[in-house]
Design a protein that fits this description.
mainly alpha; 366 residues
Length: 366
């Protein structure tokens, strides 16, 4: 029974990761392609946020009609104190990431974003979502040195774009750690990713809008791409292209939040290393990105660091489960541990209880 349960959990996690891969790789190449002719990444991000909010609103309405149950609606206190920090961090992470495409290649962007696992790990320790471990020092050194080797003497290196992505990775560490805390608080009722996206988008828009006005407001208002068009067809083409990116962003946001809510923020980053390997290969084949032997070696070192962390998480997760199974059992049913139940008619209830406990403990099942 336990083997079947863990197998189902593993299959579910792999499926969620694959869906995330499709949207993440797709929007990365799409945004890079779009930035070649449309140099307003912050405006593009704001439009994406608007599309995501509209799609999430329609989805919530459809779900409410289908189930007959009202969707969660947070009060202003929880909205401004608990949702706002996540929204601001998410807006800056996405905005800076899209902005960097004006300056750097997909391969450099992908490799630099992989450093987000360091910041997620740091903030997970700060918020006590992860436990301190001396082996984490080795993991940090491997990932940091791998990133240094990948960017050292890179022929397509751009300092401005690199700083933007590195800052986005730092903010992303805050973003996903706070997202994990937000979605796993049962009293808020935001376990459904659609509800989370619906509540985040307005605050994300307001958080990014001042930066857009400062950097792109004047130039966009005088641009022939949107406000000074001479023909209708180029305007419609631009809006359609931006809308496609917004749809991909909705799918990516949904898959990211779903993956985090069912596993953890660290799972998202660790699983992402395999996605990044695919992205690097596609960038070299489709976009002509050049990487030296030292750059590839740096990528391998970074992969080894993240793989070490996966192994450590798996080991400690199994040790924790084993220690729970060794707990003494009292005769009283009130003190019975769910993992120690042996009654056949309680098997499904035990699996459901284990599922909830695993989500609260943020186990990594990769």
């Amino acid at each position: 029974m336990a083997q079947v349960y863990f197998l189902c959990r593993a299959v579910r996690t792999v499926g969620l990761v694959l869906v995330y891969y499709v949207f993440s790789i797709g929007i990365t190449f799409y945004n890079k392609w779009l930035m070649k002719g449309f140099h307003y990444p912050l405006f593009m991000t704001l439009l994406h946020l608007t599309i995501i909010f509209c799609l999430s609103t329609l989805t919530r309405s459809a779900m409410q009609c289908w189930t007959g149950k009202p969707r969660v609606m947070l009060n202003w206190t929880d909205y401004l104190t608990k949702v706002a920090p996540v929204a601001i961090a998410t807006a800056l992470d996405i905005g800076l990431s899209n902005w960097s495409f004006l300056f750097i290649t997909i391969s450099l962007y992908t490799m630099t974003k992989s450093s987000a696992v360091l910041f997620i790990l740091f903030f997970s320790l700060v918020f006590k979502l992860e436990h301190p471990n001396p082996y984490l020092i080795v993991v940090v050194l491997l990932i940091a040195s791998g990133l240094f080797m990948f960017t050292f003497k890179s022929t397509q290196f751009n300092l401005k774009g690199f700083i933007m992505v590195l800052l986005a990775s730092f903010i992303g560490g805050i973003r996903w750690t706070l997202t994990q805390v937000l979605m796993q608080k049962a009293e808020l009722g935001l376990q459904n990713p659609i509800d989370t996206m619906y509540h985040l988008q307005p605050l994300m828009f307001m958080g990014l809008f001042p930066l857009f006005l400062f950097n792109e407001g004047l130039s966009l208002s005088t641009s022939e791409k949107l406000f000074r068009v001479n023909e209708l067809s180029p305007l419609l083409y631009t809006l359609v292209m931006l809308s496609i990116g917004g749809s991909l962003a909705f799918g990516l946001g949904f898959s990211e939040f779903l993956l985090v809510s069912k596993t953890s923020s660290l799972t998202l980053s660790i699983a992402g290393i395999f996605k990044e390997a695919c992205t690097l290969l596609l960038a070299a084949g489709l976009m002509g990105d050049r990487m030296s032997g030292l750059n590839l070696m740096g990528f391998a070192v970074c992969v080894s660091g993240i793989s070490l962390h996966v192994g450590l998480k798996t080991y400690y997760s199994k040790s924790k489960i084993h220690s729970l199974r060794q707990l003494p059992v009292k005769n009283s049913q009130d003190l019975e541990v769910p993992l120690l139940c042996h009654k056949e008619d309680e098997g499904e209830e035990t699996a459901a209880a284990d599922d909830d406990d695993d989500d609260k403990e943020q186990e990594i099942l990769l």
